[in-house]
Structure formats: structure tokens, C-alpha cells
Fold HAT C-terminal dimerisation domain-containing protein.
Amino acid sequence: MRRPIYLGSIIRVELNSLSHAVVHNLKVEIQLRLFRIRNSVKKEFDGFYVRCIAYLDLWENSFGKTEQFAWVNLTKTNAIDWENAETSAEIINSSLLDVPDMKINNDELFHEVVLAKEYLQSNWEQWKQEEATRDSSEEKWLRLFGHFKENCIAAPNLIKIFEYAFCLPGTSAPVERVFSLMNNA
């Protein structure tokens, strides 16, 4: 009879150690799953955070490329140069891919820029004496394009840059006004 008691004790000890091993293995497996879930959730939150920041950066810099058109204001005698015009042309060509009529030809633009720069430099001192340098940039461009027209000089690419730059809104106030009027209607 002693044998069954001894065998029963061994079985109990074995079952006890087996249950400890099973419990330990289950505990380790649960901890691993929790670790994976935590990492997955962290990755999702990090991705969400990165997307939010990128979205806000886009809105914050919605007029970022417009600073490349500052030269169009013609505040200096050397405002028109090839580097500024080329950068503006690249911006226009890349942002208006679906509008073929607005495509700027860089070869023609170079010639137009050289002529415009020559005209502005030769007339800037006279404008200074007449205080015409205080004229608005639109008036200066009108003088330039008037000169081009009188001398049968075509400047379609320079005109496209001028049109594009002057149609950019300085603020969002006009759009907000439209929405305000729509809400009041």
C-alpha cells in the first residue's frame, strides 16, 4: 500500500511542477503579447502624430513658395534676374501641370528677362528723379509691358509669371468674406 502513496506523491509533485511550468509559460506568452500590443499601439500613435504634424506643416506653409515671387514687386533696380525668373517658372510649371497654356518656355523666358532687365536698368535712374520708383509694382510692369508693346517685343512667359504672382492672395480674407456672406444669406 505504500507504493500508491509514494506514486501519488510523485504524481502530485510532477503535476505541481508541470502546472508551474505551464503557468510560467502562459505568463511569458501573455507578457510577450502585451509587449507586441504596446509596440503596435505606440507605432500607431507615433504614425498619427507624424501625420498630424505633416498636415499642420502643410497648412502653416500654404503660401511658402510665394516668397520666390517677391522680385515681381520691382523694388530694386536689379529685381529682375534670371535666377528669380527661372525659379518662378519652375514653380508655375510644376504647380500647373494640367494647364498647358500656362507652361513657361525657359529659353524664351531667358531672352525676355534679359530685355526686361536692360529696360529697367536703363530707366531706373530716370524714374528715381521723377519719383516714379514709388509707383506701385503694377505701374512699373505696365511701363515695361508698354515699352515692349511699342517696340513689338513679345513677352508671353514674363506675362505668365506676372499674372500668376499677382493672382496669389495676400491673405485668406477674401475667401473668409465669401463664406461669411454665404452664411448670412
